[in-house]
Amino acid sequence: MATSTADFRNGFTLRYNHDLWTIIEFQHVKPGKGPAFVRTKLKSLTSGKVVDNTWSAGHKVEEVRIERRSFQFLYKDDMGYNFMNNETYEQVSFEAKLINAPQFLTDGQEVSVLILVDDDQPLLCELPQQLVLEVTYTEPGVKGDTATNTLKPGTLSSGAEVRIPLFINQGDRIKIDTTTGAYIERSKD
């Protein structure tokens, strides 16, 4: 479907240079001299590569329809990470580079899979922005170690290693930001 740069928004998906791209950031610029243009940061849905691109205002682009569907992580093998569609029970496999945070996947984890509507093709797998995981190994915490921002290594139930505060103990459940891999807080549940 042809549209113009006036329709750009974050999350807009388009076909450009024989690839599918989603807009991460965009900015309409109207300089004092010369024509207006749109500055964008694009992320490839096939390779994960991020590039900057500038378009003249009103430039025509081909919009692509993308749907998010709920899938469940099953297991990892030689073919990659395997997921099951929660509605049709169909299984798909993804390489690690097409998953936003594969180190935080645990058995049964719910994820969103971006599907190209035209041919029902799975493109990318995204974990929720925040996850609650159990700390399976860390050095014991010492009572009173809350005054400083000192961090220690901790291993999570997914196998990922993250930096956590000194007061967190083995068996505690913590909230993690999957985009940065950073500790957010101790989970209250």
Question: How is this fold's topology laid out?
Answer:
Blueprint: E1 2-4, E2 13-16, E3 19-29, E4 37-44, E5 50-56, E6 60-63, E7 66-77, E8 80-85, E9 91-94, E10 110-116, E11 121-126, E12 130-138, E13 151-156, E14 161-165, E15 173-177, E16 182-186
Antiparallel strand pairs: 1-6, 2-3, 2-6, 3-4, 4-5, 7-8, 7-10, 8-9, 10-11, 12-13, 12-15, 13-14, 15-16
Protein model, in words:
The protein is mainly β and 189 residues long. It folds into three domains: 2-63, SH3 type barrels (Roll); 66-126, Beta Barrel (OB fold (Dihydrolipoamide Acetyltransferase, E2P)), CATH 2.40.50.140; 130-186, Nucleic acid-binding proteins (OB fold (Dihydrolipoamide Acetyltransferase, E2P), Beta Barrel). The chain is 0% helix and 54% strand. The chain contains no helices and 16 strands. The strands form three sheets. The protein has a six-stranded antiparallel β-sheet, with no helix packed on it. A five-stranded antiparallel β-sheet has the order 9-8-7-10-11, with no helix packed on it. The protein has a five-stranded antiparallel β-sheet with strand order 14-13-12-15-16, with no helix packed on it. The radius of gyration is 21 Å and the shape is flat.
